[in-house]
Amino acid sequence: VQLQACGGGLVQAGGSLRLSCAASGRTFNSYTMGWLRQAPGKERELVAAISSGGSIYYYEHSVKGRFTISRDNAKNMVYLQMDSLKPEDTAVYYCVAASGVTYDYWGQGTLVTVSS
Predict the structure, then answer these.
(1) What is the pLDDT of residues 68-99, one digit of tens each?
(2) Residue 66: how many CB atoms within 10 A of its CB?
(3) Eight-state DSSP code of residue 29
């Protein structure tokens, strides 16, 4: 599966952004999808994930209640709605896909910058 993410940008603290990821391939609905981020000088972290059928979710503790992951299997799309953004959310965000237990497929990153 090939992944193409977009939607990053510069936003003030408290603002919102919506990241989108378009996936190629006929088996999109068999993949667990997620969003990883990497901030300068920090390790990558999985911020959100959604099961292939869209019924099971994971959120990293610091984004719970602020970020919402969703997917549209008919359109081969996955989204990350980010609200109440904080400067510490500044990072490069990657759309990722897993057919098993590891995220084997990565899109190019999209930069999110939150100014204070």
Answers:
(1) 999 999 999 999 999 999 999 999 999 999 99
(2) 15
(3) G
